[in-house]
Amino acid sequence: MLLRVTDLSYSYPEAPSAAVQNASFSLDSGEYLAVLGSNGSGKSTLARCIAGLLKPSVGSAVFDAPAGKVPCALVFQSPADQLVGETAELDAAFGLENLGTDQSEMVRRVRGALSLFALDTVADLPVGELSCGLKQHAALAGAMVLDPALLLLDEPTSMLSPAARASLLSFLDRFHGEGGSIMHITHDLEEAARAERILILDDGRTVFDGPSSAFAAIPRSSLEAWGLASPAVPQAAVPEVPAPASPALSPALSAAPETAAAPSPLLSCAHLSLGPLSGISLDLYPGTVTAVTGESGSGKSLLLSVLAGLAEPAEGSRTLAPGCRAALAVQESEASLFAEFAADDVAFGPRNSGVSGKELVSRVRRAMDLCGLPFDRFAERHTFSLSGGERRKAALAGIVAMDSDIVLLDEPSSALDVRSRAQLFSLIGSLRAEGKAVAFTTNRREECAWADQTIALPDPPPRTADPAGSKSALCRTSPLTRYLLTLSQVFAAVFIQGPLFLAALLFLEFIPLRASRYPLKKLILGIARILPWLALIVALQFLLQPNVYHSAMFLLRFITLYIPLSVFMHLCSHTEIMYGMEDLLKPLSFLGVPARSASLLVAVVFRFVVILKDESDRIVLARKMRGGDRKKSGISGKIASVASLFVPLVLRTLVRADRLAQAIEARGFGTGKNSRYLLWKRDVRALILNVMAPVLAIILVWLSTFVRM
């Protein structure tokens, strides 16, 4: 027996009831178990308890894994929460480093995992630049590379295109056929049918645990009660609508009748081009629904951003009918939630448009009820205590409550159960009946049957990997030498006396600057951006102590500090920063200093700077879509505007920090072992530069203290 779960229960703080209640089951080695349940039934909580990321309030989950095997690898429901490394390649290697895997073995396994999930050509891209589908692939690669005894998947296909989904399911079949153990959480009954055994949760309790053959005999009334079927949508597959091979529109069922009384489009786009989008033309008419399909990276989300007016096309035009408004529900639903309570978040948009009092309450209630998030049950629920599917419903409700003429939904059915998907398309039907133009992206071909017209975006062109030779010689030196080079120049910039010696240091700094291939234009623009603040500081300093010499020294000293730090950040990835810090701290290990933990903390800080910027951008975007970007007059108005950004950013920071900590723990950190994925070959020219630059910097400091010029 591989896993035994005994009377496991878990309750979140301040939650009215337990998320998981008295779950008991076992899993044999080589078994394929599918876990079904409606949104909020406790599936993800159960997975995190099994993976050891949450400590059960009661009961236990115990593994008996084969020797040398990682007991469990969990793929999170939201892939963005799981990625620790700054690229798909380094993220896949992170877990193996924590297990102390040999470097040559790491390279073999990482390359195999990247190839398995078609990440070869994007392996060196920052994870923030990957589409949601590719982030999902990267999360899968990071789990599979660990060679776990149990592969625990939390809705792994929710953001995948049909081709990618078919490829993953085929892989799971092969993995299981080779003796692999799988616990697959899903909302898809077709996916669940591939498993040998099915477990169903309802309101945190196990209501079914048996073979797939027995699942077929469950009465439909029970499936409906558990959220696995809906009276509104028959279980038979909806007839598939063939999608065109080009980005042209498929025949529109309700678009622009060829009569004199033809309605005018609410939104008209002609020959749009931006990124992967090329020559897209479409019209959105009142009372019509448009579906957009395509592989990951084809530009589905980007197209909706252009339609919403959030992105300007490089070519082509976008024309919005007078008085019309467009509202967009983004793919990563959590980005749209920034109020503490669900009802307050849904009310944000209409409140900004001037709605108040009973009308506001009525509109919020209607939107939440239409989106399958009953107002009476969820109005006072904390937004970040909602499940993944419930957060998506809250985000949809926030857009519906705005009562916009054009409603744009990016992957609205992702992470929704069968009943909730039926409610979603019932909602879309209601919006169409009200005369609104609705456009949604989807990875499910059968959902196109609900649309009046379909746009199939062409596959993105393959990306070629950057050649290894494009890196500078300094990039091929060890992080420790880069640290020493930077620290010596910073030390010199702080302690050198006299403007001529500082000028000499500035000249010396241009040698590694050019050797690193740091763009000179980027350096100048960086200094120019902060020049007004520098000028203000110099002016204040001059007013307090009128001395041109001191002002000149301040400016020179700042520039000589700015250059080496900029070059360092250009040369080092977050992983290399961690490696270099660990090497710097290693001599202190005999004093009990945890070099590995401290170095990881430094890397996490740099990673979190990127995360905070992303979160801030998403909050600003969500506020803009819901009318929260209007400038408020007066000091109190400005303070309120800043506070409205600060509070949700703090909340999102706490949530992301907790999830990043769980992601690090889930990848084996803390085992006491570690190895390194990246190795560096010795480059004679770079080695000479790394030795001579610190020596010359120290000589300049020494000379400046004895020679007054």
Automatic annotation (TrEMBL):
Residues 3-228, 262-484 form the ABC transporter domain. One of its GO terms (molecular function) is ATP hydrolysis activity. The chain crosses the membrane at residues 490-511, 523-544, 593-613, 633-651, 686-707. InterPro entries: AAA+_ATPase (IPR003593), ABC/ECF_trnsptr_transmembrane (IPR003339), ABC_transporter-like_ATP-bd (IPR003439), ABC_transporter-like_CS (IPR017871), ABC_transpr_CbiO/EcfA_su (IPR015856), ECF_ABC_transporter_ATP-bd (IPR050095), P-loop_NTPase (IPR027417). One of its GO terms (cellular component) is ATP-binding cassette (ABC) transporter complex. It is found in: Membrane. Keywords: ATP-binding, Membrane, Nucleotide-binding, Transmembrane, Transmembrane helix, Transport. It is a multi-pass membrane protein. Pfam families: ABC_tran (PF00005), CbiQ (PF02361). Belongs to the ABC transporter superfamily. PANTHER family: ENERGY-COUPLING FACTOR TRANSPORTER ATP-BINDING PROTEIN ECFA1, HEAVY METAL TRANSPORTER. This is ATP-binding cassette domain-containing protein. It comes from Teretinema zuelzerae.
